[in-house]
Design goal:
The complex is a heterotrimer of chains A (about 350), B (about 220) and C (about 200). With about 350 residues, chain A is an all-alpha fold. Chain A contains 15 helices and no strands. Chain A folds into 2 domains: about 25-145, no CATH class; about 160-325, no CATH class. Helix content of chain A is about 60%, strand content about 0%. In chain A, helix 10 runs antiparallel to helix 11 (about 250-260) and helix 10 (about 225-240) packs parallel to helix 13. Chain A is globular, with a radius of gyration of 22 Å. The termini of chain A are far apart. Chain B has one domain (about 1-155, about 170-215). Chain B has a two-stranded antiparallel ribbon. In chain B, helix 3 runs parallel beside helix 6, helix 3 packs antiparallel against helix 7 and helix 4 crosses helix 6. Chain C folds into 2 domains: about 1-50; about 60-195, Enolase-like, domain 1 (2-Layer Sandwich), CATH 3.30.390. Chain C is built from 4 helices and 5 strands, in the order αβββββααα. Chain C has a 5-stranded antiparallel sheet with strand order 1-2-3-4-5. The radius of gyration of chain C is 23 Å and the shape is elongated. The chains are: A mainly alpha (about 350), B mainly alpha (about 220), C alpha+beta (about 200). Chains A and B meet through helix 5 of A and helix 8 and helix 9 of B.
């Protein structure tokens, strides 16, 4: 999904079939933004208006950095395609609402300038800009980036918080660290997590609204189902069959706890499906999703922290190879390996 | 005379900067540039070794047999690295302590062997010394840039002196290894951008200098 | 045959000459720097001992090396032990030990222990940990949080204190302190036997 530069005088033809669809980067990005909107409303509802402020700052700085980069390098101005806005929103959704207001600017600079524009702009970035920005911020401002369950206006976190609410935990830490006695999550807690009655970063809390966004994008045919479903399915399968040390096997609450907590859902639906940084072929997408799932679980089991974003980043780096090995055979051509073999045989016969 | 020296310096600092254009000696550069003072000491140590080894290689260039020249160069280089290490331990102990393992590791820094092979083994002693100085200056300047950016934003200090005051929150990624890669990558990109814009070097000239560089850089194979 | 030998000589002779030349150069420089380096190390050691026991600049403690037992009781990693006195007053002991488990070379530490077996202070003489990463644990803040003022039993009964991101260095530090405490115990037991 690259934007054809306007100065390119060649006739640009999309791949067949040549239907006249008004399918430009801008409409796709607009669809993604629409799908992301409910999450912001929900974030504002439970975390307060600070969530909105952070998001606005993040989006504005993303657009500004892209504009500045375009102006400085005297390239065509590309902020109209809204991809920078999507990056800004996704970056903000990965931040806790307690973050100082200037920090998203640093993340936006890293996302847009270092990860996207220096590699050549939209379509040429190797990893997802928003996730890379988050990883950079996590490395830089570790303490500010860690989610602390500050009570918000709903005040509904009591069900997760241990008696000393000060050092309380996010639902994710319940499935990551087995306490002295293993507590399995109750159905009520799981339902709260599904709705989004939990603490976390701005956009990751409500699994329900993320699913709505997923359905909307599916209906609009912006994304295909392969990556999110294989991603989540792999995580579910591994956590059901092989839970981390200290948890019981075949415990569906544990599996659901993994699926509903942390940034997994957000990463699976909105980040892993980024056009630029996911494989093109269906087979490739399934491999990509499974890889993301396995890496997420590995990071969660052994590093005891949220691994979805790192998993997607790591798999982004492998996309080139995944595409290479899953490239479809052109119609009518014989597989290249067979051709070589035949040639070899022929030569031997001649000899 | 003066003109050629100037040209050599321009090549060392700009056109053929060891770190930013030839991408040599990256390992130590990434590891050591957490602060400007470390970068300065490292740059000076490398320059000293480079000048001495260039001088010796150039003096002995007719004496060293083709077949074992790499071994001979390495002996010369490691000798000078040992000497520089001993001198620093004696007269700059705090700097030697800070550079730690990367001081003896200058032996395997490709810049030094590269200049011995590409320049000093084919040129007279005086130009070789100038070449060592020029390349060393280029390396030092690149290290200083890298170190300054990383220390200023990664720790909020320069030469250990606080610049932004107490309230500054350091951007931790810059003082950690990934930050080193990112800053170096950005500097290389900037260098390429500047070279592209530089009016003194149009494309044909650049192509020529590139082919010259690759010819020089190539290791001669013995028949 | 003769030609090949000649070839060999033609190639190896210059190498030998170059090696000799470089060795001579290094030896010459070493002649001048070795005493200075030695003095530097001595000064560093003295300064470290002073810092460990909280002495001011003009106070000169007497540092007597203790005889280490040469048997299996000696913990591995122990380098030397010193009794530190200020005039007649016994200040405590100073153990020079190495801690294994660091990334590259072992840590070389000085551990000051007073007469009651409490750790007074720690000091790192040499480490090759990554600046800004592994050496995060080699500072006063980390020492005072986990080690200073503790006794043998308190430290050996607890888990090694670990700092996230510097696990290996922290482990090496723990090993060094452990070794120093073991050495202290060995020495005091030995004294008890003698008396």
């Amino acid at each position: 999904m690259t934007v054809e530069p306007k100065q390119n005088k060649l006739l640009c033809v999309s791949s067949s079939p040549h239907l006249r669809a008004h399918d430009s980067t801008r409409t796709v990005m607009l669809d993604v933004l629409i799908a992301l909107c409910p999450l912001l409303l929900w974030g504002c509802y439970i975390f307060g208006m600070r969530a909105l402020t952070l998001t606005v700052i993040s989006v504005a700085s993303c657009l500004l950095f892209e504009l500045l980069f375009n102006l400085i390098t005297k390239k065509e101005i590309t902020i109209g395609d809204l991809s920078a806005a999507v990056t800004g929103v996704l970056l903000a959704y990965n931040l806790p609402h307690t973050l100082p207001l200037w920090m998203p600017v640093v993340g936006a600079f890293f996302s847009i300038v270092v990860v996207k524009m220096l590699f050549g702009g939209l379509g040429k970035n190797v990893v997802n800009p928003a996730l890379a920005g988050r990883a950079c911020m996590l490395l830089s401002f570790t303490s500010a980036m860690s989610v602390s369950p500050v009570l918000t206006r709903l005040g509904l976190f009591e069900s997760y918080l241990p008696a000393d609410a000060v050092s309380g935990s996010t639902p994710l830490s319940l499935v990551l660290n087995p306490g002295e006695t293993v507590v399995s999550l109750s159905n009520e807690q799981l339902f709260d997590m599904f709705l989004g009655n939990e603490c976390g970063t701005i956009g990751e809390v409500s699994a329900l609204l993320i699913l709505f966004g997923f359905l909307y994008l599916l209906m609009r045919r912006v994304i295909s189902w392969h990556i999110p479903l294989t991603f989540l399915g792999t995580v579910a399968l591994i956590t059901y069959l092989l839970p981390a040390k200290g948890f019981e096997r075949f415990d569906y609450t544990y599996t659901l706890g993994h699926l509903l907590s942390g940034g997994l859902m957000l990463a699976a639906v909105f980040m892993a499906t980024d056009y630029v940084t996911c494989p093109i072929t269906t087979k490739g997408r399934i491999i990509f999703g499974i890889g993301c799932g396995v890496l997420t679980v590995l990071v969660r089991y052994f590093a005891k922290q949220e691994g979805a974003s790192y998993a997607v980043l790591a798999m982004n780096l492998l996309v080139y190879y995944i595409d290479k090995i899953t490239a479809p055979r052109p119609f009518g051509s014989s597989p290249s390996s067979k051709v070589k073999k035949k040639k070899k045989n022929g030569q031997e016969e001649k000899l | 005379m003066f003109k050629t020296i100037l040209k050599q310096f321009k090549e060392g600092v700009f056109d053929k900067n060891p770190l930013l254009v030839q991408i040599l000696g990256v390992c130590a550069s990434l590891a050591i540039t957490t602060s400007v003072s470390n970068a300065l000491y490292m740059g000076l140590a490398v320059t000293a070794v480079l000048v001495c080894s260039n001088l010796f290689v150039s003096l002995l260039r007719k004496f060293i047999p083709q077949q074992v020249r790499i071994a001979a160069y390495i002996v010369i280089i490691s000798g000078f690295v040992t000497i520089v290490e001993m001198l620093m331990k004696a007269y700059l102990p705090s700097a030697a302590e800070k550079l730690g393992i990367f001081l003896p590791l200058i032996v395997v820094n490709c810049i030094i062997l590269g200049r011995a092979e590409a320049y000093a083994s084919q040129n007279a002693p005086f130009p070789s010394i100038i070449d060592g100085l020029a390349m060393g200056a280029g390396f030092t300047i690149a290290l200083l840039l890298l170190g300054a950016i990383r220390e200023l934003f990664g720790a909020g200090t320069l030469f250990g002196i606080s610049i932004f005051g107490q309230s500054y929150t350091p951007i931790g990624i810059l003082s950690s290894p990934p930050g080193a890669f990112i800053v170096l990558g950005c500097l290389i990109a900037l260098m390429q951008y500047l070279k592209k814009d530089c009016p003194s070097m149009n494309s044909t000239q650049r192509r020529k200098s590139q082919s010259r560089m690759s010819k020089q850089g190539r290791i001669r194979h013995d028949p | 045959m003769k030609g090949r030998l000649l070839d060999l000589a033609r190639i190896s002779l210059p190498l030998v000459v170059i090696c000799t030349l470089m060795v001579a150069l290094i030896a010459a420089v070493n002649h001048f720097t070795a005493p200075v380096i030695n003095e530097n190390e001595k000064a560093l050691f003295n300064q470290s001992v002073k810092d460990l026991f909280g002495l001011s600049k003009n106070e000169e403690p007497t540092v007597d090396p203790l005889h280490l037992p040469e048997n299996e009781l000696l913990p591995s990693g122990a380098l030397a032990a010193y009794a530190v006195k200020m005039g007649e007053k016994q200040l405590g002991y100073c153990m020079e030990v190495t801690g294994s488990g660091a990334y590259s070379e072992d840590l070389r530490m000085l551990v000051a222990i007073d007469g009651d077996g409490q750790i007074i202070d720690l000091c790192c003489l040499a480490s090759s940990e990554t600046p800004g990463k592994g050496d995060k644990v080699l500072n006063d803040g980390f020492y005072s949080t986990y080690y200073l003022g503790r006794t043998v039993d308190e430290i050996t009964s607890a888990d090694p204190p670990i700092l996230s991101g510097s696990t290996k260095t922290a482990t090496a530090l723990y090993n060094a302190v452990d070794c120093a405490l073991a050495l202290y115990q060995t020495l005091t037991v030995q004294k008890g036997d003698g008396a």
